[in-house]
Amino acid sequence: MKGGVSILIAIIVVMAICLGIASHYPYLQAKIAPMLVGAIVLALSVVELARELRRGKKEALSKREPQKAGGTEKFRSYLREASWLLAFYVLIYLVGFITAIAVFTAAYAKAHQTRWSTSIALGVLMAGLSYLLFSYLVDTELYPGFIFKHLGQGV
Amino acid sequence: MIEAFLQGLMYYTEPAAIGFLVLGVSIGIFVGLLPAIGGLTAIALVLPLTFGLNKIAALSLLLAVTAISSTGGSMTSILMNIPGESLSVVTMIDGFPMTRRGEAGRAIGAMLMSASMGAILGVGLGFLMIPMVRPIVMAMGKPELFFIILLGLSLLAVLSRESLTKGLISGFLGVFISLIGFQESTGVARLTFGNSLLLGRLELVPVAMGLYAGAALLELGAVGESISPQEMSRSRKEIRTQIHQGMRDVFNHLGLWFRSCVLGYIVGVVPGIGGGAATFVSYALAKQSSKTPEKFGTGCIEGIIAPESASNAKEGGALLTTIALGLPGSTAMALIIGGLMMQGVIPGPEMLKDELGFCFALFWGLALANIIGGIMCYIIAGYFNIIKIVSLPSRYLVPTIVALVYLGSYTTNGHMGDIIVTLVFTGLGFLMKRYGYNRAALLLGFILGGYFEEYFWLALQARGAFFFLRPGCLIILAVMIFVYSFEPVKGFINRRKQKEALS
User: Fold this and answer.
1) How far is A57 from chain B (nearest CA, A)?
2) CB-based burial, B83-98: b 16+ in 10 Å, e otherwise
């Protein structure tokens, strides 16, 4: 319930800010849709928030919800996975797609109890496949990475 | 008419024409399997190849790629929760939960059968409707188109499992997000907060990838299991049995299949609504008419049959408008027009009059491509065991899928910013799932948002504030009221019946 209320408050605040910004656009054509749709979202969120708060009161009156066992551990594992996703993005930004895919795939597999040889083989295989499919066959220009771009030799 | 109908079929007695259909189907499946590199990219890639070909070979190649790429995309939606194509987004909603439950084969069987049969029905309707389409399309003004969009948005309420309000918040939030960016007609950069990344409008694929694939990856990695461990021990014969069961499921839901096809076909005929809307609206209608709507989203076979039938039937409708009026029913059809023009054929009423046999040949090509594509996908799934991929441990699957998701997002525009969009929507998708918001509704709102604004403004300009008083608008408005009141009225009647039974 707590998280649900926070999300609704966040939506209400963001929508109120956006409505304020949209109302200052110079043309009616530019502001009419954001203001109309934003107002609808805002109104619906207020209704839902009132409902959530009423529901929360009822729950509090009847009994307190028991804390879920292992909740913190689960939250930590989600956070760990999210960090992997972010780290992969940073790696791509620095060294480009192909190198990042090789390093990330191998590192992820190794960190999850895979043997070194298998992890490295998986990394090389994924990088090779990505290059073959996207760069060679479909002819997409993949991002070479900040470092290689500045060294002048994209990978 | 019958003579032209048969003349169209005669084009495909040439082995070269069939050969180019098979080639187009192979390219379509391959490209469809790659995330985000959808049919449009595939058509753009093969368009230059058609220069030296005769018109039937060239158009066979283009139509086959268009027809089949969404089928390939649906395979990755079902197996890995990655939409290979924007049209395959809805198939993920129930396809992936079925895979997790160990019913990937059944889901693929249902997808293949409903898609192939849907395409054939769409083509059949195209044949029948050639003489009638012109007055219908011409009668659709901007106000009616706006109300059709609004009807699609109203169906969001039906899509919502937990709460109607949360469904509507999700849907209108989707519309709101679609408005972010530079508005070409006024030159105003809206809600960009000075960020150049937001200047161009957000693309569907990075958004969908984040909302669904990204959020699923977080869960898959955190839990640390494979997508479906049951598939490891399944033999090829067992997988084929599952596929056959899925195919039979379509025949057990023939009414739903037919309704979805007709809906998809109508959406295809009307230019400017887009195929994505057809899949979402058919899904919503399937849920509303189902006896067990609560099962939708948890791995329900009807949730696959409806969008797949609509998605493929729409091609027949889109091709009809393209040929009859020279108006592309979709972006893919705009490229087909390009292909026709490269062959010296100008689509429009004149083409219908002068080259009716060739027009029918295009419909035959679309139908044959779907039959060939269905058979090829069946072989890939049933004999080459592609389904086994979902039994791999998460430590191999997660990095592989993350790499494909990032590559898919990046290739949409060739911009690193699209990966950031995917990451942001991964977080949003995760929270929405956790707190009972409707991700499908948000996506539908996002898809329809651009049209919503455009048609609303044009209707306002052309007809004034009372544009909704046109007869066509009032009819659609009545349908909307029916959609909203259906569930409450049904609930009221049920409660009354229960009270009566108790007393």
Assistant:
1) 18
2) bbbbbbbbbbbbbbbb
Query: Which residues from B are below 8 Å from A26, CB to CB?
Result: 186, 188
User: Which residues, 6+ apart, have CB-to-CB distance to B235 below 8 Å?
Assistant: none
Are A138 and B173 in contact (CB < 8 Å)? no
* Kind and range of the H or E run holding B54: none
Residue-level pLDDT at A154: 47
B positions 221-240 inside 8 Å of A (CB): 221-224
Looking at this predicted complex, what is its ipTM?
Answer: 0.89
| DSSP assignment letter at B385 | -
Cα A1 to Cα B375: distance, rounded to the nearest angstrom? 49
Average pLDDT, chain B: 81
Long-range contacts of B14-17 (CB under 8 A, 24+ apart): B14/B56, B16/B57, B17/B56, B17/B57, B17/B60, B17/B365
Which SS3 state, helix, strand or coil, does residue A125 take? helix
User: Which of B:20-39 have CB within 8 Å of A?
Assistant: 31, 34, 37
- Select from B93, B95, B89 the least CA-distant residue to B73: B89
Strand partners, B182: B189
- DSSP designation for A40: H
Distance between CA B450 and CA B81 in Å, rounded? 26
B92 pLDDT more than 90: no
- Dihedral pair phi/psi, residue B162, rounded to 5°: -90, -55
Instruction: Tell me if B190 and A4 make a contact (CB, 8 A cut-off).
Output: no
User: Which pair of tokens denotes residue B389?
Assistant: 């991929």
Q: Residue A135 is encoded by which pair of tokens?
A: 């760069």
